[in-house]
TrEMBL record:
Keywords: Dioxygenase, Iron, Metal-binding, Oxidoreductase, Vitamin C. The keyword Cytoplasm does not apply. This is Fe2OG dioxygenase domain-containing protein. It comes from the Bacteria.
């Protein structure tokens, strides 16, 4: 059974693995596209000249679907990290780098796109010139689609499979006291301020400001482990670490009651767990700014963590003096990633 390419293929570009370089983080999306286009043009020239380099798939805007800010800057992009050996682990799903790439390592003796044996990092298997298997992450289906479209490799698998549904999640929260030592809090608060906004202010309503973006390399493990633990405690699945950052509420700022789940994307992913970790002390560093969960004030102090399912209504009351600082993070369930062992 051979099927036409999926409609997602236009999001991906192919580049030569030996020359492709990733661009800087946080660059405008348009630059990412131009960069990827240039790389693909170069590859095509080499292919036309008879060269057969290994190929990297580049999807500059994959994550931009979720994470491009109003100013057009890519804030966080999901990368497919090639496993060193064996299966792909949790860590690989959670590696954030500026581009989505998937290595299509050609394991044939004489690499040729129309011939015998290709393996694509546990994602797409092409054998005897046909795509036989897609593994782990169904978003790689477009990868296969691209191979079909561009190189004429037939496909034996369903490129648009049914994704497993996200299990039902209720409303609930857990509380952790003194979860972050002072030294770590101090490091978070010393991070440089980003220039982009998180949410635009509306009339009569001033939501918090993004005060820092902790680098993934330094904070990713701590944040993702905390999310995983919280998810377990709440019975909410997490297979991907979503956005995280330090928020600041100056006087007059608040967060109206809301939930954090994202239903417009429910066909592919959902936020499942939210974390809020207070970074300074109410009464001393700021006034007002109480965290409300399900309509009730929580008694929180510096270092305390509230983790709640993303369907739990919550709010932050108006800060009346000083500045409230908080670390927030979101765990997601991406249906296309499937279950991940931790
Ligand atoms: O400031 C907080 O504690 C919570 C922030 C929040 O609700 C959010 O970022 O969605
Ligand atoms: Fe929230």
């Amino acid at each position: 059974m051979s099927r036409p390419a999926s409609t997602h293929t236009r999001h991906y570009r192919i580049a030569a693995a030996d020359t492709y370089t990733r661009g800087p983080r946080n660059r405008p999306a348009r630059e990412g596209h131009l960069h990827a286009e240039r790389a693909e043009r170069e590859l095509r020239t080499r292919l036309a000249a008879g060269e057969r380099p290994s190929v990297v798939l580049v999807a500059p805007e994959r994550a931009t679907r979720a994470k491009i800010g109003q100013d057009g800057h890519v804030s966080k992009v999901f990368a497919w990290a090639p496993p060193a050996a064996g299966d792909i682990g949790l860590r690989d799903f959670w590696t954030h780098v500026p581009h989505v790439t998937a290595d299509l390592d050609v394991h044939a003796a004489r690499p040729d796109f129309a011939s015998d044996l290709y393996a694509a990092n546990g994602s797409v298997w092409v054998t005897s010139g046909r795509i036989r298997r897609l593994a782990v992450s169904q978003w790689l289906a477009p990868v296969a689609g691209q191979l079909v479209e561009r190189y004429g490799i037939p496909v034996d698998v369903d490129l648009t499979p049914e994704l497993p549904p996200c299990p039902p999640i209720g409303v609930g929260a857990v509380l952790g006291r003194s979860m972050l030592p002072d030294a770590l809090i101090a490091r978070l608060l010393a991070l440089p301020r980003p220039t982009r906004r998180l949410i635009e202010p509306h009339e009569g309503y001033r939501p918090p400001i993004l005060a820092a973006e902790p680098p993934w390399g330094e904070w990713g493990d701590l944040i993702s482990n905390t999310l995983v633990q919280a998810g377990k405690a709440l019975g909410a699945p997490i297979n991907y670490c979503g956005e995280f950052g330090v928020l600041e509420y100056p006087p007059g700022y608040q967060f109206n009651e809301h939930t954090d789940y994202v239903d417009e994307n429910a066909d592919t992913w959902d936020r499942t767990v939210s974390l809020s970790l207070l970074l300074n002390e109410p009464g001393r560093d700021f006034r007002g700014g109480q965290f409300e969960l399900g309509g009730k004030d929580m008694d929180l102090h510096r270092g305390d963590l509230v983790a709640f399912t993303a369907r739990t209504p919550h709010a932050v009351r108006k800060v009346t003096a000083g500045r409230r600082l908080v670390l927030v993070a979101f765990g997601e369930y991406r249906r296309d990633l499937g279950d991940v062992d931790s």
